[in-house]
């Protein structure tokens, strides 16, 4: 509609600052494009077209190494472009992949597997330059019809406090053995670890470089007490959440090992997470005391490749290295199994103390020994105590993902459910009282069970055999992001235009309405966040933005805020009275993807909600993350349905109302209206009107909540109190949207104390009519 297009154009023109490179710059496969970028410049128009035969798309940015230039990649539709003030948040929210190291050398590899797989069509690239001087850059996109492996590389020369690298360079003589041609012990050790990397790279089809910091450490041991042979793990974990997006991860609000993040994101750790590009992805440490001269177990490492000539009293290095590095690839759960670290069964937490899932434990199931019932290890009704019992249940801790269950590597696959679920290590004497059992930190949960899966690589105990296959770990890792199988493009949740609220913050809410359909940038929505001042008086804020990939992404206003406080100036001519309050900063967004897993939505029961979203907002120094749901299901709306946001047209802006109509069985619908209006000082206020039996033109009381409560840090009052402040009369015929209201629908508003009055004025929908 014309008025809507004008409003969007005015919004774009009002946005401040920044310079953009020319748009629509095609890239040819394998041909570098050289150009210069000034400091703080944006370039968002690069693209390459990919056909259906493509197996790999590699996008590389190379520069002089002195500046920081970040790269973002999006499939199918272009990045939202504004002539000015294209913010980092907008780029981040529209990207499917990113590489954001502190360098100007970035790389992203997209394959045909993963959440956002390589697919025929157009792939867009955006670049942002920070600080420094003009940078001379080269951008190259290469499409390949075949895959190539990159895989595991080993850093043998980065010692630190717990990392002795000297044993990799031992000059003690050694005789070549079983495929290992090394003539010194150090050489054989390096060869054996590289051979391990080759096995894992080939079995997992690893297409991105993963760096292992290779270490030794004197960890002692004895024949009577045993010894730690080796240990390895990812160098860090991260999760995709609205605060820090990793948009290529399939599971939201769940910790992933950095190796899984690198694999699926197709970029280095520093590209995915930022930070130092010299940090390894895995740290693997082997016990120096097992080899001569100490030889504490009288079972030294055997460094042969195949293991065919392995002495009985020896430890197969390649098997051990495969096992430990597989932990580093993400084969480990983060639910607490160590009583010295907190409550057994607790989910992992961030540094702020917020609990989240981890992607490994989300695939774990609990099987009740008596009833044989199965429930998720991290399910909403599974308590820390339930998990604690499962962790020492002998056979109650299982892997639940279907690919591993049905795999030929699962020795239980032929059994009837749930007995076909692979066992994870849950130590306890089967005949004892579960309460007398104890977890084994480092082993419980993060291994397969040696009794039911005796020859599996990821058993809790080394059985001495020279294993060279991932076994059951292969399909288990597939569920964690290592699958090379081709995937389809994702589908995203579609939000419901409606009134939304958080059950734990009742009395606050949002009017969330679609106002335009946009097949390029995503449907455009208008949001009114109605809430309260610190003094408890009703106030509201607004946002305008697109739905992209299942998220509401708000556009910045003239002040750079994505949540605006609207001021009304009666002294100005009609049509010019509204402005955004520059004194109040605000931000706003909603993520509808897997919201049920978010800490916000786990804060209370959400049974019966038709859809959930996580609303992240800030107003000044306040900020919150709320779990929201539609307050009026579509199934109970009346016919005709008057639901939507109404206003008096562009010549009389600054006030309007949300209406929803409910079929209550009485013939006439129940009508509820949230009226948004300016008070005598021009500040934004809101009030509520409702009638159980709507009659055209009938007077309805307008009520204002008098004991509103704060947005952060206080509980909702037992009951909200209301004061009558005026009247509302509605004459509604059909839900229509017109450039100029015709008068088919009318409103009369009288609020004496605010000096606000509208007498029987025509109104029209600013939002899309229901069903449109």
List keywords for this structure.
772 residues; mainly beta; Jelly Rolls; eight-stranded antiparallel β-barrel; six-stranded mixed sheet; 41 strands; elongated; disordered N terminus
Protein model, in words:
The protein is elongated. It is mainly beta. It has nine helices and 41 strands. It has five domains: 14-144, Jelly Rolls (Sandwich); 151-235 and 280-328, no CATH class; 335-461, no CATH class; 498-632, no CATH class; 635-765. 11% of the residues lie in helices and 30% in strands. The strands form ten sheets. Strands 23-24-25-26-27-30-31-32 form an eight-stranded antiparallel β-barrel. Helix 3 (185-204) links the parallel strand 11 and strand 12 (209-217).
Low-confidence stretches: 1-20
Main beta sheet: 8 strands, antiparallel, barrel
**β-strand number:** 41
**Radius of gyration over alpha carbons?**
31 Å
Look at the helices and sheets and give the structural class: mainly beta
Number of helices: 9
Task: Please bin the fraction of helical residues.
Answer: 10-25%
Please tell me what the overall shape is: elongated
Count of folded domains: 5
Placed side by side, the strands forming the largest sheet appear as 23-24-25-26-27-30-31-32
Q: How much strand?
A: 25-35%
Spatial gap, N to C terminus: 14 Å
Average pLDDT rating: 92
